[in-house]
Design brief:
The chain is an alpha+beta fold and about 190 residues long. It has 4 helices and 10 strands. The chain has 2 domains: about 100 residues, 2-Layer Sandwich (Double Stranded RNA Binding Domain); about 70 residues, Nucleic acid-binding proteins (OB fold (Dihydrolipoamide Acetyltransferase, E2P), Beta Barrel).
């Protein structure tokens, strides 16, 4: 990195093991993507009884910083997250985002050229239009989260339980999700503007 690591602790006692762990994880990020210019890590506890939160900002040349700030995510994924879990989860997300950026820059972005071969057929299981998301039922019987912005064809507000859709299974911050969702039988020209 061109700029030394900036590490700060707010309302969390800085411990030697936490600082060492963070420094080792930043070094690992540099191995994943060797063009990182700067790294800022802030460990804080927003409220007295709240779990710790680890914010990461990575400076990358020629693009906006990669920012990982997962306050809600930890509480949804873990019952009582501690500092070790918060550090591990934040850096896992940062590492994945850097790997995706590297793949894109090398022209190997997933599913770009072969979406048709990777599409799966499922059906709408639940809709939460007020929260801009829903869940698809897979052929295996599992549920996959999808966001309003994942719908490429059709009208999100008119989707109903049982509607058949094509989708690509992807990995999101909290696990498998459905992306590039297309209502079966709707041409691309009818995609919402």
């Amino acid at each position: 990195m061109q700029v030394p690591l900036e590490l700060a602790f707010h309302h969390v006692d800085p411990t030697e093991w936490a600082e060492t762990d963070i420094r080792e994880r930043v070094a690992k990020l540099e191995k994943v993507y060797d063009r990182i210019i700067s790294a800022r890590v802030r460990v804080e506890r927003p409220a007295h009884n709240a779990p710790p939160v680890v914010h990461i900002e990575l400076g990358i040349p020629g693009r906006a910083d990669i920012v990982v700030a997962q306050a809600d995510h930890l509480q949804r994924k873990y019952q009582s997250p501690d500092l070790k879990t918060a550090i591990a989860e934040s850096f896992r997300i940062a590492e994945r985002r850097l790997a995706e950026l590297k793949e894109k820059q090398q022209g190997r972005a997933r599913f770009v050229q072969h979406d048709g071969q990777n599409q799966l057929l499922g059906q709408v299981a639940e809709m939460h239009a007020d929260a801009d998301h829903g869940f698809l039922l897979t052929a295996e019987g599992g549920l996959l989260y999808f966001h309003r912005n994942s719908l490429l064809t059709g009208d999100f507000d008119k989707l109903r339980r049982g509607d058949e859709v094509h989708y690509i299974e992807d990995i999101g911050d909290t696990g498998p999700t459905a992306s590039k969702v297309r209502l079966k039988g709707v041409a691309n020209a009818e995609a919402p503007a």
